[in-house]
Amino acid sequence: MKKRSFLKNLLALGVTASPGVHSFGKALSRFEHIPPAQLASNEDFWAGIRAGYKLKPDYINLENGFYCFVPQETLENLIGHVREVNYQGSWYMRNERKANKAATTARLAELGGCSPEEVVITRNATESLDLIITGIHWKEGDEAVMAEQDYGAMLNQFKLAAKRYGVVNKVVSVPNLPQSDEEIVDLYAAAITPRTRLLMISHMINITGQILPVRKICDMAHSKGVQVLVDGAHAFGHFQFNLPELHCDYYGSSLHKWLSTPLGAGLLYVKKGNAQHVWPLLAEGERDPNDIQRLNHIGTYPAYTDLAINDAINYHHAIGGKRKEERLRYLQTYWTSKVREIPGVRVNTPADPARYCGIGNVGIEGMKPADFAKTLMEQYKIFTVPIDGSNVHGCRISPNLYTTLEELDVLVKACTELARA
Ligand SMILES: Cc1ncc(COP(=O)(O)O)c(C=O)c1O
Q: How many A from CA of 66 to the centre of ligand 1?
């Protein structure tokens, strides 16, 4: 199908003007026969998806890693929920909120391939992960292992645990371009001692987009009696996996990143039997120590978010998780393969497709990342974020489903010209 006809088709179905998952799904179903890997390079299809977003014309947005702002479809649904909850007021909060939250939780669990008793909705990955980091029943001298490439807020929470409980933090450094899974597993294994209680790893390192061999690390840690907390802020909704198959004990993610929910939504997975090992952040009444709900008392909150998560899951399924993964990896491969070998350009994300998906990091030799980001914005109208620390020096490049190849060509041109300068 030609680009125009798909766009026309979406418009005729009212997708961009007054969106509805049903019509959207119907338009997409025309592409059902095309395998996800093949559809990844079908620009007509993705132009149709792009039409569902309201894009700021000021710049090319290659900084979706902070927040994957929502397509118009999800936005309109959210606004409808805000109106409805406001209309129903306390009636909604007393009589309907709980069941709706439980229904959304069950759908999230289904997406993660686990039981609804292992998942709670939080407000973001920070809440999910920090709750575990300081909630563990630490004793003075217990050790925790993490990487300098992990997210700053979690590293800070470990520093707080050190001050508060006497936890000893062992910080490793993950190579940007590892040669094998074993290299990474051995790195973490070497930091474990008989006093280690918890290991935290990133599913996808936020500054480079590198995907770690989570299951192998978990199996290694468990063989030494150590539990594993996975920071999946960038993984859930980005590429396909099943939570129990990772073999981790705890997993936290932000849903407003790659699942494209509105801001303020996260997920915490606690493997069955592990909730008893964690103190809640905010106290809940007496419950079974293994009831994950013990860890989820947050008081009154914007309950329409629960409903909008449900819409975002619908949108995710309408596009298809595998299609999304294949497209995001295709976009990353598209631009990295064009710049990786250019002298003076340094791609800080591995070249093995099993170790990346949509995110990459690129630096220009002799150019500070902050200057690179500034030049990208001022001369090429490309919005990115500079990273300059933890052995990573470059700009993080995080396209989204609406990103076009022409936009990535501008990035390639910028890298080529700046490396030559
Ligand atoms: C790896 C990683 N973990 C945790 C977070 C925190 O996410 P949030 O701010 O949504 O809580 C981020 C945010 O960018 C992140 O990249």
A: 8
Q: Is 122 in the pocket of ligand 1 (CB under 6 A)?
A: no
Distance 68 CA to ligand 1 centre (A): 12
Asked if residue 46 lies in contact with residue 330, where contact means CB atoms within 8 angstroms, the answer is no
Summarised one tens digit per residue, pLDDT across range 262-275 is 999 999 999 999 99
State in Å: Cα 125 to ligand 1 middle. 6
Give the residue-averaged pLDDT of 98-114: 98
Residue 413 CA to residue 421 CA, distance in Å, equals: 12
Quickly tell me which residue has 């299809």 as its tokens.
45
Residue 151 Cβ < 6 Å to ligand 1: yes
Work out which ligand 1 atom sits closest to the CA atom of 126: 11
Choose which residue among 206, 357, 385 to substitute to test ligand 1 binding: the one with the highest number of ligand atoms within 8 A of its C-beta.
206
Q: CB-based contacts of 336: which residues, under 8 Å, 6+ apart?
A: 347, 349, 351, 360, 362
Q: Is 254 in the pocket of ligand 1 (CB under 6 A)?
A: yes
Q: Phi, psi (5° rounding) for residue 142? A: -60, 150
Tell me if residue 133 falls in helix, strand or coil: helix
Dump pLDDT digits (tens) for 314-340.
999 999 999 999 999 999 999 999 999
* Sequential DSSP letters for 180-227: -HHHHHHHHHHH--TTEEEEEEESB-TTT-PBP-HHHHHHHHHHTT-E
Distances in Å between the alpha carbon of 75 and those of 20, 82, 309, 328?
11, 11, 11, 22
